[in-house]
Here is the input.
Amino acid sequence: MIASIDKHRIIAAVVNGIAIFLMLLRMYQIDSDKGIIIFIFYYPILLVINFLVFLILFFTKNKLAKVYVQIVLALLFLLVPLAILASNL
Here is the structure.
């Protein structure tokens, strides 16, 4: 049986992955120089939302805050490769 934290980590990663996929798909569909603006605008919003969830869980002393720290760090780590990918679409 998967632990509660692992389930939450999987769900958070899948939701963020779907959001990134939809953002890149929309950029591909636009097929113009304006597509990168979508990335520049929505990716930081995704980071801020995850960071706010972390802060709320951290201040309520919830164990799940660790999951969102990992998600925020992963999103920061993926920022440069995704920006390069987004600029080439």
Summary: Helices lie at 4-30, 35-59, 65-77, 79-88. The chain has a mean pLDDT of 86. The radius of gyration is 15 Å.
